[in-house]
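Question:
Write out your own:
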Amino acid sequence: MKNKTSEINNLVKQLSRENFFGYEMVDYWDGDTAVLGLQKENIVVYISTFYSPESNHYDIIIEEFETGKILKSGENKSYGELIHDLQSFF
């Protein structure tokens, strides 16, 4: 993705190999280069590498787009934990 860190671009490559369908990459945080957004219908996922660059760990917030209600969040998650969280929504 343009204007994103190498960690986010590597994450995009990894996610492209996963079995997720029907989501789109969104960038509601264009000033934040360490964030990836995924959206499927009314669910938005915010994935950040800001606090753990080059460690392959992620902070995640999953929320309802229209209300901003947080459905799930976590810090310092491994790639496997991230995928597990995403699978419950995608």
Q: What stands out?
A: Residues 75 and 88 are 17 Å apart (CA to CA).
